[in-house]
Amino acid sequence: MVQDSYLPLLAFLVSLCAVPAIVWLRRAPNRREAATFVAAFLKFGFVLAMLPAVLGGEVLRFCFFEILPGLPLEFRVDGLGLAFALVASGLWIVTSLYSVGYMRGAGEGNQTRFFVCFAISLSATMGVAFAGNLFTLYVFYEMLSLSTYPLVTHHGDREARTGGRTYLGYLLGTSIAFVLPAMIYCYVKTGSPMTFASSGFLAGEVGPAGGMVLLLMLTFGFAKSGLMPFHSWLPGAMVAPTPVSALLHAVAVVKVGVFCVIRVFTGVFGTGFLGELDVAYVVSWAAAFTVVTSSLIAMSQDNLKRRLAFSTIGQLSYIVLGVSLLSPYAVQGSMMHIAMHAFGKITLFFCAGAIYVAAGKKYVSQLDGLGRTMPWTMGAFAIGAMSVTGLPLTGGLLSKIYLIWGAADAGQLALLAVFVVSSVLNGVYFFPIVYRAFFCAPEGGAAPGGIKEAPLACVVPLTFTAVVTVLLFFFPGLLFELSSLMIAAE
Amino acid sequence: MIWQFDIIILIFMVVTAVIALRVKDLLAASMVFGIYSFLICLLWAEMGAVDVAFTEATVGAGVSTVIMVATVFSTRRRSKD
Amino acid sequence: MKLFGLIAVIIVGALLLSATGDFPDFGDPQSPASASPLSTHYIEGSVYETKVPNLVTAVLADYRGFDTMFETVVIFVAGIGIIAVLRAFGTPAAELPEGGGEEGDDDLIIRTTCNLVFPVIQVFALYVVAHGHHSPGGGFQGGVMLGASYILLALSCGLPAAKRRLGERQTIVLAAIGVIVFAGWGVACVLFGGNFLDYAALDPIIPGDVQMARSHSMLGVEIGVAFTVTAIMFVIYANLSTRGRLRDGL
Amino acid sequence: MEPALASFLQEQIVPKFNYWVYVVLMMIGLYAMIAKNNLIKKLIGMSIFQTAIILFYVSVGAKDGAGIPILDHHTYEHALEHPGDEHIDRDGYANPLPHVLMLTAIVVGVSTLGLALAIAQRIFTSFGSIEEDEILEKLQPGGHD
Amino acid sequence: MIEFFGFLAHQAPLVTVLAPAFGALLVTLFGRGKAEAGLPLALISLSLSSVGAVVTLFHVLASGGELRYRLGGWAPPFGIEYRIDALAALTAAAVVLVGLVNAVFSKTRVAAEAGEKAPFFYTLYLFLLAGLCGIVFTNDAFNLYVLIEITSLTSYALIAMGNRRAALSSFNYVIMGTVGASLYLLGVGYLYIKTGTLNIDGMRAAMAEAGIWGDASITVAFILILVGLWTKMAFFPLHGWMPNAYSYAPTAVGTLMAPLMTKVMVYVMLRVMLFAFGADFSYGGAGCGDIVVALSTVAIVAGSLLALARSDIKKMLTYLIVAEVGYMVGGAWVGNEAGLTGAAYHILSDAAMTFCLFMAVSIIVLRTGDHRLTAFTGLFRKMPLTMIGFTVGALSMIGLPPTCGFFSKWYLVGGGIEAGRWDYVVALLFSSLVNAVIFFRIFERAYFGEMDEPAPAGDDADSRPSQPLERVPWSMLVPLFLAAAAVLLVGLFNNTLAGWLRAALAI
To answer: Residue A309 belongs to what domain range?
Structure first.
């Protein structure tokens, strides 16, 4: 079952190796971007190359060395990790294209630093996805926090500084204060290498009270998942340039957060053991609270990116809520939702960025009539909104169905209601935007001159992701298989 | 070892130590400290530690006092406490 | 500060006194310290191993010779430290604030007496160094006395007079040579196949039997000690009495 | 006198008076180091503190009825002539080890004193005072802690 | 030939200690008045010493645990002996390597700051290192005292070679250091009066044989020795001498003493606890384990908060050292393998990261001419290389993987959890968070450049360098990178190192 392989290492290293190249080519922007693309395609290729083996039920393992007594630094690629890695590395290609368009279109400075940090954070994301044990997970989690800081504060103004401070404060603070002691406690108490196992390496080692404390520390400690009350870094981080918000705060960073939470539930404790302990309900209610509250807050946000950020917080909590239900359907739904939401939300962010580049508009109230001048962008926006809301013909529907099914299966009707109500709320805060864009007259009567469709490098990626969002509805097979690998292992 | 002698020297030592710390004239303090060292030297000799006594006589009563006086001369003679 | 000092004194004093009751009586020959094999061996056995009747010298220069080497280093370091801290190379005297001392004028009687006493002290000091095996004394005591003789000279005839006999550069070299003699003696033992400071290894080159090799080696290192101590005592005095200017002192 | 006090004196103080006096001296020194304001006074306190410890050590080495730790001539000659015949009695000589240690301690004491005096002189050169409070006052305008 | 190498390996500890000592003496003999006369000799002797330390380390590992070397050829307890285990060999290697690298680092500074006194500076510098190595190796309680005094005297003098504030702080150090060393000496005296020996192993054996663990004087001796060592290692609240002394001292002295002095004293504490008194007494009979851990908790919290409140960079770092000392004391006292390993490992890792940070900060202070946090403004752009070194050290202080600070925290927290000392665990995490705040505040300033906020009040003329450096020479940057590499390497090889340490400390 477990098979040693260098593929995980290659997939991890390829973007790190791109860093010197990017720095070296800093004087020739075109060739610099070429380096990024080469690395992105190579990385996607390596991840794809692992697909057959993983689908065949293998776990690909790569061990660096034993870093602490009995504790190796190692990669283990299973279905969940590979699904996540596929999404992240695939979207890196798209985002790279988009960021070239965006950064040049918006005339941002320090582009070399931007691409360097971007590459490093992608490596860190891969590290998290492939991490074979809790320790490795933690190492790359911290690496991601640090490498995204320069991206978040890219503009270097007062607002960026405040945002960056909140960002690091929350992420580092929670991980040091909660995850680190919890992890050391697990290590000291079990003496095991903390390898993720479907039955959970903590199974049978802790009692209900201890389990409760550990679960809470680990769940809230991975604050990238945006669970309230540790969510406010995410709206703060929206000061970043849009490609960053798009990839990192729709895909890499936040998904790393929920990915870690899923690992905690399925790999550290094991859903079976958590069911015995009967402690997951605390997380469920925290997540449910976050889902509803964040949707309500999102409705009142006029800044488009902040509205998207709060929407993200809500959607992330869907995933946490799903996994905390401990029902196989809900867990599978959670895993699928990582991908579905990723494509939907990244489309939305791409659109927000495109609007900013093309029309210079940041606020929802300014979008009246924009659909007529930027039909591609706003069309994609509509598709993304549909997917995030969970309407038919988009991938979002499938994962939501699984989640709701899981809630019903777990007998948690109140939580099922939360899913339904919040989906309605999602619609309520998204569709007015679409409506305004297509059916309202622009401010001041006629369409203001000068606003055209966004640059091609922006429009192509967002169109592509919108198409993928639709395709995922019709062809969810691969995702479905990868996620059911995890369920089957239990 | 003669314990009567011992006690007398010890009492004198405590007295000289207190005086050395209480006088406001640092030169006097240094000299009293020299006396203190000399008493100690006597005490060592009386306790059979002749080598220590010899060293204390040369180092403690001799050089220490001289360098302390030297310092007092090159700084201030009056002390506030 | 006074209150804090009082509190600290009371706490530490109480701590120390609480242990006093536990000690063996003062002067008890059977106390663990006096009856231990260690002290018994030093008293009863050392003369057979080193042929030195002064037990303190035997322990100081042989059994615990390594301590004594570092003790010499302590002295050396203190002297170098004082130079490093205080010595003002070439600073004009006017720039330094004046202290309370006043220059005393030379007195013929004192000068003559000191000139008479000076050689006597030195001879006696050399005797103390050399006779440390048999009577109280040794390198430290003799060295301090030698140093004191120069201090006396500086006190009576002024620092320049003393500096003519023992200049600054010579002093420092003498001090370093003293430590080198001691440590070099130890290294010589290593070269002859023993451990560091294992004088017995020098038996082949020192006349007499193994015990005499130890005894003579002790004399050798004591001389090294005396060099350093002599030099450093004078350095300390010379720097402290002139605030590092090495012009006329007290 | 109370019998309890008398027995305490009998058992604790009289046979161990040296150990009591060394504590008194040490505390005098310690108090001076902490509470005195004048740097030279602090150093006198420091020296008293160190000699108190030397007193303790030498007291440890003292023995009732013992002589100085140097073999008398007769014993020495005898030992040289008859190496096998171990007739030296340890109770006749004071314990040499504490003496050795204290030689070192005295030397360390004078070295520390010399260096400290040098530093004090340097402080006097830069600040024009050897009173701690005056020096700290001079530092006030610019300095903190 | 093999015999010859065996001979060399046997004498390696001696070379480690004596090479710097002879170097110092030769510097005094031949270096007259010239500013850089001492440097080549210092470098040669320290290289020799480093080789000695490394050979010793491998010899210890090869011979399975410990080496003994009889000085003067006398068997203990009559003579003095060296006892070298893996911890000792590693600490000694750290000491001489830091000394060597720092000699290179401070090459230009010694010439500038000591001037004509440079030969004397190097003499003291080398003797300080020789003393530290001797402390690490010796197995004799009194020899330890003499060596402690050598290191103290040299450091008093070295610190006092700085500006006038340095002289004042050095005087404070003299007073406190003497009290500390004297209390240690007194404690040794108490042990001697009860056991009749000065050999550290012999003391434990004698106490066990006589069964006097319960005596009041043994407990008092233990307390005296500990308080004495705590004073020397600046354990809160006995840290008063340190911040000023390290921040006003000459550059080369601050960078040398900050990483070494407190750590070696921690090493001595471990040695005394485990070998002179034995683990049973230290953790059981003495009955003060709980209190000491509580004290170290206070030290960690207080050190971190005091550091947070400083605007002077070097002082901030020294308060961080106060907190780090709390880490080590606490780890040594939680009384289990993980904690002890953590404390011992932290000796190495703290030496590496403090060295790294002090060098970086010294460069920055010298280059910008500003000793406050404002010096960092915009430095990532202006001095990227220095900031890389600084960043590595800072991340280690915060405790982020894969730096060594993370792993020592890992062991220490593990020890705290195993012993159920939650207060200590919380204090460690709290200090990590405070360090994160401190350093990210600096990073922010360095990253964003100019900030329109008022400069912190209280300019202290005495700690400002007289003339800012024109540019940073490579002789300063390369040592900084070496230290940064050491931070990472000690971190990555923590498993191996901790394995050796665990064997050495087996309780």
So the answer is: 280-490
C-alpha distances in Å from residue E333, one per residue of A458, E88, E105, E342, E501:
61, 19, 36, 11, 16
**Residue E218 and residue E133 share a domain:** no
Query: D28, D76, D90: which to substitute to probe chain C, counting the most C Cβ within 10 Å?
Result: D90
Task: For residue A64, report the phi and psi dihedrals to the nearest 5 degrees.
Answer: -70, -70
Domain assignment present for residue E4? The answer is no
Please state whether at least 3 CB pairs lie below 8 Å between chains B and A: no
Residue E185 predicted with pLDDT over 80? yes
Q: At what angle do helices E337-368 and E494-504 cross, to 10 degrees?
A: 130
Please name which of A103, D20, A368, C248 lies closest in space to residue B14, comparing C-alpha atoms. D20
Residues of E at the D interface (Cβ-Cβ below 8 Å)?
A: 142, 146, 149, 152-153, 156-157, 160, 164-165, 167-168, 170-171, 174-175, 178-179, 182, 185-186, 189, 192-193, 198, 243-244, 315, 458-462
> Could you give the domains of chain D?
3-139 (1.10.287.3510)
Name the pTM for this structure.
0.91
* Same domain flag for E209 and E309: no
Domain boundary residue, one of E238, E256, E287: E287
Domain that holds residue E181: 142-287
DSSP lists the bridge partners of residue D70 as: C54
Residues sharing a CB contact under 8 Å with residue A28, sequence separation 6 or more, in sequence order: none
Answer yes or no: do A27 and A150 share one domain: yes
The values of phi and psi at residue A68, to 5°, are -130, 160
The whole-angstrom separation of Cα E129 and Cα E49 is 10
The larger pLDDT score, comparing residue A481 to residue E156, is at E156
pLDDT at residue D144 in the model: 46
Give residue-wise pLDDT tens across range A276-293. Answer: 888 888 888 888 899 888
**Best of D20, D38, D127 to mutate (most B CBs within 10 Å, chain B):** D38
Cβ atoms of C221 and C185 closer than 8 Å: yes
Asked whether residue E468 is assigned to any structural domain, the reply reads: yes
What are the pLDDT digits (tens) for A137-159? Answer: 999 999 888 888 888 888 777 78
Single out the residue in E139, E160, E177 at which a domain terminates.
E139
Give yes or no: residues E149 and E107 share one domain.
no
Q: Which residues of chain D have pLDDT under 70?
A: 1, 9-15, 84-86, 141-145
Number of helices (H), then strands (E), in chain D: 6, 0
pLDDT value for D18: 80
Phi-psi domain of A131 (left: phi exceeds 0; alpha: psi -120 through 50; beta: other): beta
Chains D and A touch, using 3 or more CB pairs below 8 Å = no
Question: What pLDDT is stored for residue E507 in this prediction?
Answer: 56
Contact predicate D30/C9, CB 8 Å: yes
Q: What is the pLDDT of residues A89-100, one digit of tens each?
A: 888 888 888 888
* Straight-line distance from the first to the last Cα atom of chain E, in angstroms, rounded to the nearest whole number: 39
pLDDT tens for residues C164-205?
A: 888 888 898 999 999 999 999 999 998 888 888 888 888 888
The residues that bridge with E407 in the sheet, in sequence order, are: none
Q: Residue E2 domain-assigned?
A: no
Q: For residue E464, what pLDDT band results from cuts at 50, 70 and 90?
A: low
Task: Tell whether E5 is covered by a domain.
Answer: no
A256 and A393, same domain (yes or no): no
Question: Where is E85: in which H helix or E strand?
Answer: strand E80-85
In Å, what is the CA distance from A172 to each residue of A221, D30, D121, D135, E437? Answer: 9, 47, 51, 45, 10
E331 shares a domain with E355: yes
Number of other CB atoms surrounding residue A99 within 10 Å: 28
Pick from A301, A267, A300, A261: nearest CA to A284: A261
Chain D residue numbers with beta carbons less than 8 Å from the beta carbon of B75 are 40, 120-121, 124, 130
Do A453 and A467 sit in the same domain of this protein? yes
